[in-house]
Write a structure and sequence with these properties.
The protein is an alpha+beta fold and 234 residues long. The protein is built from 11 helices and 6 strands.
Length: 234
């Protein structure tokens, strides 16, 4: 990752200070297309900034830390040819090829990505039909209302969004009642939800509740958040 821009800095312990795409995306969006085509070693570099909001570069002469609190958006095919699971086309990949392709994304990396959404290929009929759909303005209004609820609830904490809530504060700022805790306990007991994912599910559930205009996190909000976890990390 750290290759995009380099600046000579002879006044520092480093001859070159590479900030890279990760740091350049801080407080913005980092979009990675064809995620499965990246080398696994490159993808593993994402784990630290996704967890800590910073990227550290160590050299023999010293260490520098750059800000890297970004929103990661990535896309990839279900297999190398892209047709696995598609009813209208035949997949040319065998199971071994699919496993090798998907193995580039490790469990710990997937565990740090909150939302995993499978999108089917759009048919020709869906492309040409003009069915009424929710407008961007309507969606924006709902998101802005949810952000306002977050701002009010997080006032005085120094935080702006649910995503910024630390693991230490999740229990206090994203409280769960007995019913919702039982649902999460079941997932943890089955070994399908890690401790890290537990906190992430709680934050996502709080955001889903905000979008729905709900004051408290309900069972259906947690259930929806659990559906967004990748099958391999549940």
């Amino acid at each position: 990752m750290p290759h995009a821009r380099a600046r000579m800095a002879h006044e520092t312990p480093f001859a070159v200070c590479p900030t890279g795409e990760i740091s350049l995306a801080s407080h913005g969006v980092l979009y990675l297309d064809e995620l499965g085509e990246f080398p696994r070693g490159t993808l593993e570099v994402l784990r630290q900034p996704l967890e800590e909001g910073a990227v550290t570069i160590a050299r023999a002469s010293g260490t520098l830390t750059f800000p890297a609190r970004f929103t990661l958006v990535a896309s990839m095919n279900p297999c190398p040819c892209g047709y696995r699971g598609d009813k209208s086309a035949d997949c040319r990949c065998d199971d071994a090829a699919v496993q090798k392709y998907l193995a580039k994304l490790s469990g710990p990396l997937l565990d740090r990505i909150d939302l995993h959404v499978t999108v089917s290929r759009v048919s020709f009929g869906e492309l040409v039909q003009r069915a009424p759909a929710e407008t961007s303005a309507t969606i924006r209004g709902r998101v802005e209302a949810a952000r306002e609820r977050q701002a009010i609830r997080l006032r005085g904490t120094g935080l702006a969004t649910n995503a910024a809530i630390s693991a230490a504060d999740v229990r206090r700022l994203c409280p769960l009642d007995t019913e919702t805790l039982a649902l999460l306990e079941s997932a943890v007991t089955r070994g399908t939800l890690s401790a890290r994912a537990f906190d992430r599910v709680a934050r996502v559930a709080r955001t889903i509740a905000d979008l729905a205009g709900a004051e408290t996190i309900a069972r259906e909000h947690v259930a929806e958040a659990l559906l967004y976890r990748d099958q391999r990390t549940r």
